[in-house]
Specification:
The protein is mostly helical. 36% of the residues lie in helices and 7% in strands. The chain has one domain. The longest helix is centred in the middle third of the chain and has 25 residues.
Length: 137
């Protein structure tokens, strides 16, 4: 059950540690999406697009709800922030400028390039968690 509505979980082990269930991290999402895109089959490209849509939606909804980008997300939902580990989860405290997509995640070192490189345009794929809608991507 690694594939969830909010992205791909890092492991299925529920240890309460930061890398484990149900947390998802940007570098893993990025590697999976790029690997699937590189396979260049209809199926792999469709899955890559679906994974990117889930992750971008989760990042965007969490940002709308909290005002921050987070270092990890709970992939069981759209926009749910991650928890667990040996320190308080990091968030992006840098201001976001309109039209500056690549700067959205400045401050959370692993998340910044992956959100900016995700394939689908955020506006189309982020409506799932807004306004009480629960439709899955």
């Amino acid at each position: 059950p690694l594939l969830q509505v909010g992205g791909v979980a890092t492991t299925v082990d529920n240890t309460t540690q930061q890398w484990d269930w149900p947390n998802g991290w940007a570098p893993l999402q990025h590697m999976l999406i790029r690997g699937l895109e590189d396979a260049q089959t209809n199926e792999s490209e469709a899955l890559a697009y679906s994974l990117a849509a889930r992750w971008v939606a989760s990042c965007y909804v969490a940002y709308v709800n909290t005002g921050y980008m987070h270092e990890k997300y709970d992939v069981l939902g759209i926009g749910d922030t991650g928890a667990g580990g040996e320190y308080t989860p990091q968030v992006c405290r840098a201001p976001v400028r309109a039209g500056a997509r690549a700067r959205v995640c400045v401050g959370v070192y692993m998340a910044r390039p992956q959100f900016a490189r995700a394939s689908p345009p955020p506006a189309r794929h982020c409506r799932w968690g807004l306004g009480g809608q629960t439709a899955q991507p």
